[in-house]
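Researcher: We're reviewing a set of sequences before deciding which ones to prioritize for further study. For each one, I'd like a predicted 3D structure that I can look through quickly. This is Carotenoid cleavage dioxygenase. If possible, include the structure in token form so it fits the rest of the review sheet.
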Amino acid sequence: MTKVEFNPYLSAPLYGRPSIEELFVEELPVIEGEIPVDFSGAYIRNGPSQKYEPMERHHWFDGDGMLHGIYIKDGKVSYRNRYIETKGYQYEDKTKKSEWVGLMGNVLQNPSFERLKNTSNTDVIYHNNNLLSLWYMSGEPYRIDAKTLETLGVENFQGQLSTSISAHSKVDENTGELIFFDYGNKFPYMMYGVVSADGKSVHSVPIELPGPRNPHDMWITENHSILMDLPLFNDLEALKKGRYKVKFHRELPSRFGVIPRYGSSEDIQWFEAEPCYIYHSINAWEEGDEIVLIGCRVKEPQPPKNASASEIERMMQYLQMNAQLHYWRLNRITGEVKEGELCDMNTEFPVMNLNYLGRKSRYSYNAHIESALTLKFNGLVKYDTWTGGSTRYMFGPHQYGTEAAFAPKKNASCEDDGYVITYLYNEELDHSELIILDAKQFDIGPIARIALPQPVPMGFHATWISGENFYGKEEA
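Model: Here's the predicted structure for Carotenoid cleavage dioxygenase, in token form for your review sheet.
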């Protein structure tokens, strides 16, 4: 490996330039093609954009959360971006400098009210007519106005939320319920919960684990939720010293806990599978006595040890994801688990038609990962998750994407009757655009390209809000 003495995740514009300007542009110019008029809604993506120079070594995950929003209606597109004004962001905006060291530093020296800064930079979901920005380490969720991207404050659901919420919570589009989990380093190590569609009631129960774990995602079906206990987790001795360091325990199985949506702690049923790590699930559904899980499985989540590697190099090795499309079938009667690889391509950051979340679905749209020193998405892959078959659209030279979103057409006739949209950054020209692909004709490339008013750096996760939900049925 080439010796790296600087941090590409801080110095390269692709990964988040500091103090990026907050803009609102009402109508963006079309570079090529035509914006379809048979869909409307909002595409919102979260990600890190470090505002002040870091105190110490910087991890990409440490950057201040920023939302980039695209709003589509009547064949026109507008753009808005805004920082998420977390408690840490507001504190540093007064002092005009970084006050926290991040994952690569000793967090015991950080402000006592928040030892590790909750940047809320990881995921964004739409629940009860507002956005919620979420953090991968599990923290307070922030409520965001979906139209203005203004931070409205910490969301505690009228004081009923007694836990934190991890990044990859789910909203059931059919019921409006928010399903979430929380994890941490204190017994019982996990909490599971459901928030009603109107945000007025919260159901939560403890989930006892063998010890502290680092689950990143979950699945839901129509009647159940599936939680993860995976064998990649924090080194407890390092944690005592204020350091975050993970280890892969190959001798332990991966465990999936199936719990009824409004179940109690005693209702959970655990299943054991081959050891691995799972950053992101795709979908799950009930099929007779079985629950079918589809996700992106990492066989080797811990890179080989290299005594000469610097801390920056080691961080970069962990960020070089290598995941494959995978299935698991959990038999709730026999306890048997069947699993297998569906495709050997390295793809991740999957998205789907959210109307099918928790119900039997067929298609997923994953980012194709380039073999490079840093994490780069150089294309999109449309998967048939029943067969493992795929269709690819690869971006051009020096162009890199981010997590996409699936936008159904108005009065869609089937699951893939819609569009896939994503931000695209040209590293050579230092500019960004929005591209729209027809999901049914995925390999032909964009049917529209729209210029963005400023570069949009690579980020983490996104969501799609349908026009009916965002504008109302009559206006959509």
